[in-house]
Amino acid sequence: MDELIFFINRVLISGTVLGSIYALGAIGITLIFGILRFAHFAHGDMMTMGAFVAFVLASALAAAGVVLPLPMGFVVLPVAMIITALLALGIDKGFYAPLRARGAKPVTLLIASIGVTLMMQGLLRLIFGSSTKSMYVAGESKDIFRIDMSWAGGTRPISITEPQVIMFVVTALIVVALHLFLTRSRLGKAMRAMADNAALAQVSGINTALVVRVTWVIAGSLACVAGTMLALDVALMPDLAFNIVLPIFAAAIVGGLGHAYGAIVGGFLIAFAETLAVFNWTAVLRPLNAILPEGMALPANLALVPTEYKLTVAFVILVVTLLVRPTGIFKGAST
Amino acid sequence: MALIELKHVVGGYGGAPILNGVNIAIEKSDIGVIVGPNGAGKSTTLKAIFGLLKVTGGTIEFGGENIANSLPDRLVPKGLSFVPQEKNVFTSMSVEENLEMGAFTRTDDFSGTMAWVYEMFPVLKEKRRQPAGELSGGQRQMVAMGRALMSKPSLLMLDEPSAGLSPRYVIEIFETIQRVNQEGVGILMVEQNARQALAFASKGFVLAQGQNRFTGTGQELIDDPEVAKSFLGG
Ligand SMILES: Nc1ncnc2c1ncn2[C@@H]1O[C@H](COP(=O)(O)OP(=O)(O)OP(=O)(O)O)[C@@H](O)[C@H]1O
Ligand SMILES: [Mg+2]
Prior knowledge:
The complex is a heterodimer. Chain A is mainly alpha-helical. Chain A has helices at residues 2-36, 43-63, 72-75, 77-101, 106-128, 162-184, 186-196, 198-203, 208-233, 245-255, 260-278, 282-285, 310-324, and strands at residues 144-147, 158-161. Chain A has a single domain (2-129, 161-324), classed as ABC transporter involved in vitamin B12 uptake, BtuC. Helices cover 67% and strands 2% of the residues of chain A. Chain B is of the alpha/beta class. Chain B has ten helices and ten strands. The N and C termini of chain B lie far apart (36 Å). The chains are: A mainly alpha, B alpha/beta.
């Protein structure tokens, strides 16, 4: 029983946290690709930027002496999302829109977004320094919920922190809201129409410039949520999300570029693959030692991949997907 | 006053002009059919009206104003609709969502128009929840026409609506076009099934090398020995 509890704590809960972050980031990448047809390389930094926006707001609240029962990072999230969405619109207007107006190729836009990455990382370092910061600005303690498992014969509890629970709830709310937006609202349907066939969307009289703006608002605000959650889960630093750009792109591609639900599935798929790959299976298989013959005990660490090579997992999944099913799980727009 | 009137329209895709002075006039009661050899500029003419390429000379009058170089999101609310030849449905979206996208520019209640489209194409009502990409070629063409009708246009433009359809569907699409026209929508279409289309056209235009070669009623063009020989395959 304890082995199962250990598995739930280490794989199920961590995987869901990571999956939520990947999914929210990948949705932005996939929507931007669907509407604007380029790989937005700077998306990781948009997440980092969103996290810093939340950090500034939370610090301001804390400095004002506000005390709240929830982590400040979550409380300021709605405002941080709006600010990050505005920043995303500004970045598009300043850097990508002029290139589009000149009919630039997707490769040109991709390279411009690499430029935006460098610029944003530089700016963040300039303003905030390169040190690691805690998102728990008011010194909030992470409340831990312990679910007693003694009724099932477990000696240890299933433990989950309050921020983790909030992350699950926030992610679930966002996914439901996004689903309703894309399937019920006029603008959401126009967005799907433009991702499906941009020329026909234009011919139908759809205001494509408006759809582009809505895309940045969604991508920017979700990047803010993903970045803030990542910073709450780990810590805040200028290259916070740059390190997870690869898994997020992998998630978007595996799910099928342009396909919002695919990005969600892809995000959780990559996250669980990573978590399972670095999981130490000895902890779960230890009872086998009792039945194994003398001198054949399990090694102390039986992880498939050493933690420091975690990134290779996303890479391998990406390569396999591209070889076996290049359009992704859901039929994407990449071809 | 004509519903739409092109006067000596010149335009192209950035390089040398493709259209070198096209003249077309259509009344609300008309079915106008443009025929001509491959590469004559037939599709380009429709795209020029719809603002999809640069018009560098001449005028396009619609509803009493020059609409040359206006973009579709301004033209659709004015009463202009266009069914492109290819890729003319949103394949991943349901039939009903395709129709809704045709009504994107409308702010009023469009359920009456949708009922009208479903009445014209009963099979679409049956398949309204199916992705348009799963339909047959003929049914897709109906979705494309239905989408274009959702904005309640006064002029419907179609680029080769019968291309690639089986003879049965060709007749059905042509009959529907005539019905739409009878209900008060002017039609301007490009057709490869030239003889068949000119037979019910009130106006015919033979285009070659970006210019009008012959203009007349549909029947006049069919009866003209030179048009028949050079453009209608004898
Ligand atoms: N997007 C484009 N960019 C540049 N040139 C184009 C483009 N589309 C068409 N052309 C050129 O314009 C000319 C006229 O093409 P258009 O499509 O209008 O012909 P068409 O009369 O419709 O012929 P078809 O019967 O083959 O459909 C052709 O020479 C074609 O190569
Ligand atoms: Mg053509």
